[in-house]
Amino acid sequence: MQSLSSSGWKDKTVSSVKIQVQPKKPTTFLIKRERGYTTAVSPSFTSLEVEMMKVLMVVLLLLLGGSLFVAEAKYMVYNTSQGIVKDKINVHLVAHTHDDVGWLKTVDQYYVGSNNSIQGACVQNVLDSLIPALLADRNRKFIYVEQASIILSPFTNLDVHMAFFQRWWRDQSETMQHVVKQLVSSGQLEFINGGMCMHDEAVTHYIDMIDQTTLGHRFIKKDFGVTPRIGWQIDPFGHSAVQAYLLGAEIGFDSLFFGRIDYQDRAKRKNEKSLEVVWQGSKSFGSSAQIFAGAFPENYEPPPGGFYFEVNDPSPVVQDDINLFDYNVQERVDAFVTAAVSQANITRTNHIMWTMGTDFKYQYAHSWFRQMDKLIHYVNMDGRVNALYSTPSIYTDAKHATNEHWPVKTEDFFPYADHANGYWTGYYTSRPALKRYVRMMSGYYLAARQLEFYNGRSNSGPNTDSLADSLAIAQHHDAVTGTEKQHVANDYAKRLSIGYTEAEKLVASSLACLVESASHNGCQRSTTKFQQAKTHYLFSLISLQFNGLLLLIISNEHKIMCPLLNISYCPASEVDLSQGRNLIVVVYNSLGWARDDVIQFPVLNENVTVHDSEKREILSQIIPIADAFAGLRNSHVNAYLGRTPAETPKYWLAFTVSVPPFGFSTYSISSAKRAGARSSKSSVYTFRSEKSTVEVGQGNLMLTFSAKKDANYVNSRSSVKESVEQSFSFYPGYNGTGNDKDPQNSGAYIFRPNGTFPIKPESQVPLTVMRGPVLDEVHQQVSEWIYQITRLYKGREHVEVEFIVGPIPVEDGIGKEVATQITTTMQTNKTFYTDSNGRDFIKRIRDYRTDWDLEVNQPSAGNYYPINLGIYFQDDKKEFSVLVDRALGGSSLVDGQIELMLHRRLLLDDSKGVAEALNETVCVLDQCKGLTIQGKYYFRIDPIGEGAKWRRSFGQEIYSPLLLAFSEEDGDKWMNSHVTTFSSFDSSYSLPDNVAVLTLQELDDGKVLLRLAHLYEMGEDKDLSVMTSVELKKLFPKKKIGKAAEMSLSANQERAEMEKKRLVWKAEGSSRKQAVLRGGPVDPAKLVVELAPMEIRTFVIDFDDKGHHVFAA
């Protein structure tokens, strides 16, 4: 040792410390303190070693706790090395932080720690302090969940989709990255869940759940070489069957842990020691897709007894210096043992997990680890229980090693209530415009990736990366749920808008390439140039009301988005065609089968005609734009553009298009040259009589309306007849203010109604009926703030209902939740079915739970369920199905009736954390009013057993709407010089009716990600719930497939490897393995993929020819 002195400091002792800088290079250096700084001195260090030492110096100071500089201090070494002890209660201490990717603050604010007047949270601090704390003791462990990446938008020069670990990771030096990789490799730092966010499980679509998980998993695999094996859904407000089997077992997870289940369910499971189960979420797959699942005894925080150790937390620390006051080692050990024994008494086996952390904790990680070090040390000295640093992976392996038989859980954990009047079913509908925006962007992303593949991916842009990342973040359980603050909802919308803008440029260039005659030689030779028009970002939610069709307007000179088509605003179609100009419409179909559908868009003039690519005139219809839409258009366009449009179109143009699979067709709209050639104008009829009826519909389906507004539904093909009545009502939001016994309000999370009231017009309002050769419509002004159109298309056998709701009036000081009811005479015996994330359907029984005897406290809220695809019920002859265009809440509260909640506007906070009323308002020119939403739902009645065909096939059409591109040209110039029809498939091939392509995406390494999904459950349809197959060679007729490697669902490991590693769990009551139908191995020569009911198979394809991706038309 050597004595050093410096100005202002007494002589300090300098310690020689050996630290392993590199595996084979031990280095000795001196620590000295001068002018308040601690430095390392060595005669010969490389720059890499210097960087490493900066990290290690912090570690050393944390490790020694200042004892280097105080000669009298005694350095205490805590024994944290204890592993599992066979005959004791093993308390697995799992250090974690739960970092919301937006909630009270935006993702950026959470990362950098700004806007702390709302919440003191800084994820950057968490990650910065975590690494030195782990390095200080190799026994310490930590898990991290949220990966969310950073994407630089070339169009805004903004880091628009930045969040947590990936952002932090890319900001680190090479040295620090090396240190972190070592921590991951050693198991001290473990990635759990591994997606870009902890997605919601109620209002997310299964395709979005897969996509966001895949993004995170592939990043972890690429940068760290590991595959997450544990699901960690600790905060979502209820848990879905799809999460268990699809985003659990099929991902390759060995277990799934979560925090929130119904309070009645939790109490029963505690008594029965069944908080941990084997969850079989799929009827089709049964035990072959089961997963070990555990609900925490209370929540995802430390157990009762004072074990919170963030700086300034009130929990008592372990004070183990006998020379100081407040020595409390035995007291803290006793509290630990008491809490451990209490949890062990409700848990099977001698292993329990403590979740040591909660929201945004470990901002100063050493404050947690210091106390856990002491607890492990002293608890194990005490000897009554065994404490150890652990992770969910270690805990899962320990549970599996006990060879226990576990209770079986089926179905899901919805709805969730945390007390008698606290049903978290309001968020199923909260922020309905944002929910619609997310769903539309999801369908657009699917189509954009296909077109990106045709054109060839460019890592420098434009590409789909930005949209992918913004969509991933939007799946967060406080994003699409609508449970965030308003400024955070605006931030999610802004990110989606920016992502869409870049993807839209990619889509435009790909379509331009495909329609050019020169495209036979490859898109890189495309001569068409597009300039990006100025995009106006409307952060108010009115811009989020997409509907029906995705539109992109292209020409040789410019491109403009049409995001407000649903309110009849589309500048590209509102053009003057009187001077011989033609409007060209290219219609792209992202589904794997040919599609006939009706498209419509606004036009200025009724004197138009439509021709297909063969120059044949086709049937079209002119429909007057209703006053309700005109008013909505002018107000919203003003907000969107900052000005009122010069001219308001008076008509919709509607016509039927036929589009091949994975391809497009082209149509031309021109001014009619002769009277007989023009589009048919709709006849308009006002129906006032209370005695007479009016009939609409063409073909098999007819609706007959009476003055009472009910309708008689008749399908002549299927001989189905039924009375159908549509109505609206509202639930006043409960005001619990001043109620000491139960102060629960209705709010963003909670649906707590205070009665229900019908919404009826103050006086008799006539029906307006519009008829034509393409479609018929019945218009109803239900109230001053509700407008509805019932629509039937020629040749279709379902009913489309379009609604405008809002602004919801609150001048009476009462918040309202608006629902619509579709009532039939069917006897349904309290039973109905709702989808799980748009995938499986689950049986529901009113006022009943499969797992416990339900105490009914909220007959409406307690029977609401999330709906992403649809809801249906049946009697002994018929089944009635309703499909939706976005996630929302719904139920069957009365036999023969389906109810959908469409909109919510509430004036009170529900005290679940967001601290803000769900009162969405739109301000235009200093005038603010409540949000108006517009949307659609669809219904159909089929003979019993035949409804699945429509639910599955039309459900795909709702999710993947046709994409339209517009251009203007002189005369027939376009049709003579461009490719007018295209399909990427073999000309004689389309996918089977029970199969969909979920993903066709070129990866950044040039390989292609392909996901194929069987759409039907086992036994759902007599014809289509069967094994089917897809011929890969016919999907890619112009490409030669070198290798098609089957992967796990998230494409981070080969399927065979995943199956070998998967833990097999024993379930109570199961004596033999259940026979399950699965597709067989893929013959590399034939390249035919088999798909069993509900099976999704994922492949990474390597093409032998690495050339351009455009297919010859």
Question: Can you give me a brief rundown of this structure?
Answer:
Keywords: Disulfide bond, Glycoprotein, Glycosidase, Hydrolase, Metal-binding, Signal, Zinc. The protein has 19 helices and 56 strands. With 1113 residues, the chain is an alpha+beta fold.
Q: Give the number of DSSP strands.
A: 56
Question: Which CATH class of the domain at 90-413 is shown?
Answer: Alpha Beta
Radius of gyration: 31 Å
Question: How much is the average pLDDT?
Answer: 86
Q: Report the sheet with the most strands, covering strand number, pairing sense and barrel closure.
A: 10 strands, antiparallel
CATH architecture annotation of the domain at 90-413: Alpha-Beta Barrel
* Proportion of helical residues: 10-25%
First-to-last CA distance: 81 Å
Which structural class fits the helix and strand makeup? Answer: alpha+beta
Task: Give the overall silhouette.
Answer: globular
GO molecular function, one term: carbohydrate binding
Organism: Salix brachista
Protein name: Alpha-mannosidase
EC number: 3.2.1.-
Structure write-up:
Keywords: Disulfide bond, Glycoprotein, Glycosidase, Hydrolase, Metal-binding, Signal, Zinc. It is an enzyme of class 3 (hydrolase). GO terms for molecular function: alpha-mannosidase activity; carbohydrate binding; metal ion binding. This is Alpha-mannosidase. By secondary structure, the chain is an alpha+beta fold. Among the domains are: 324 residues, 7-stranded beta/alpha barrel (Alpha-Beta Barrel), CATH 3.20.110.10; 116 residues, Immunoglobulin-like, CATH 2.60.40.1360. It contains 19 helices and 56 strands. Strands 27-33-34-35-36-47-42-41-38-39 form a ten-stranded antiparallel sheet. The longest helix has 30 residues. The protein starts with a strand and ends in a 10-residue tail after the last strand.
